[in-house]
Design goal:
alpha+beta; Jelly Rolls; nine-stranded antiparallel β-sheet; 9 strands; elongated; disordered N terminus
């Protein structure tokens, strides 16, 4: 059964990779045969995994950074690429992570990472990177394992892929949207709240359109409440940061701002109404 599950996991990665271009397939057994294995011990397929995997173990309490793979001239041509694979953890102390360093021609290095902690069965991971704006493709890719203390990490075969989708391969397939869409959503929500706030301020400043101003505030409150509820649902459904953060932020703003604006607007319009009443009384007194 475990072997079957492992095979299904690899098939899932294969399907995801088919939608992208696979540049390299890294086998730990081949790395060992070629004398390119940098760390750990290679285990053949067994009852726990349908593929050969790399075992990296730390019995010391101190932090360690272990280089697992170095790729020279990875032949990347697109701005978006990722290292994808499967990982399993056993007794990892504290927050550990896998990271991929991309070094460019100007000796500039940048990294992306995937978090690991505690004990977990085999699961997919991705180390995506977007090099939009870079003067050229990366010259070197380095995959490292950072352990804060004791623990054992098993890493399955790796694939270097290029992709064009908003959501990197190997990440949660059920994500409602990816980082780029999150930026768009945040911009739209921020602009909407800004326009509503500007219209409300204009009406209140001129002392006109009380019903319209209060309606706009209540509309903002309703949108904020909906955004907040959807954001909470996204958190409970384990949606990624790019999904739940803009929803929660919009919800907090949409609920918080009206809580301040409603009493302020009421006071503003009540003061204006009192001034009008006093003006009418004075006008009536002069007429008498």
């Amino acid at each position: 059964m475990k072997r079957l599950l492992g095979a299904m996991g690899l098939c899932g990665l294969a399907v995801a990779a088919e939608a992208n271009e696979v540049l390299r397939e890294i086998s730990w057994e081949r790395q060992k045969q070629e004398g390119a294995l940098l760390a750990g011990e290679v285990h053949p397929a067994d009852d726990s995994a349908a593929f050969a995997y790399l075992e990296v173990k730390s019995a010391e309490p101190g932090a360690q950074t272990i280089t697992l793979l170095e790729l020279e001239r990875p032949d990347i041509t697109k701005p978006r690429y990722a290292m994808v694979g499967e990982v399993r953890c056993e007794g990892v102390d504290g927050p550990a992570y896998l990271e991929m360093w991309s070094t460019f021609a100007q000796s500039e290095s940048f990294f992306s990472k995937a978090s690991l902690t505690g004990s977990s069965p085999w699961r997919s991971f991705a180390l995506p990177f977007e090099a939009t704006g870079a003067t050229g493709p990366p010259q070197t890719l380095v995959v490292k394992l950072v352990l804060p203390g004791r623990g054992t990490v098993h890493v399955g075969p790796l694939r270097l892929v290029e992709y064009t989708e908003d959501v990197p391969p190997g990440t949660a397939s059920g994500a409602w949207w990816g980082p780029r869409t999150a930026g768009l959503v945040g911009g739209v929500v921020g602009s909407l709240f800004g326009c509503l706030g500007g219209a409300i301020g204009l009406l209140a400043g001129r002392g006109k359109g009380r019903a319209l101003a209060m309606g706009l505030v209540k509309g903002m409150l309703g949108l904020g409440a909906i955004s907040l509820v959807v954001g909470v649902v996204a958190v409970f459904r384990s949606q990624p940061y790019a999904v739940f953060y803009p929803l929660l932020l919009g919800g907090v703003l949409g609920v918080g701002l009206p809580s301040f604006l409603i009493p302020t607007l009421r006071r503003r319009y009540e003061e204006l109404e009192l001034r009008k009443m006093k003006a009418r009384d004075l006008s009536a007194g002069h007429s008498a």
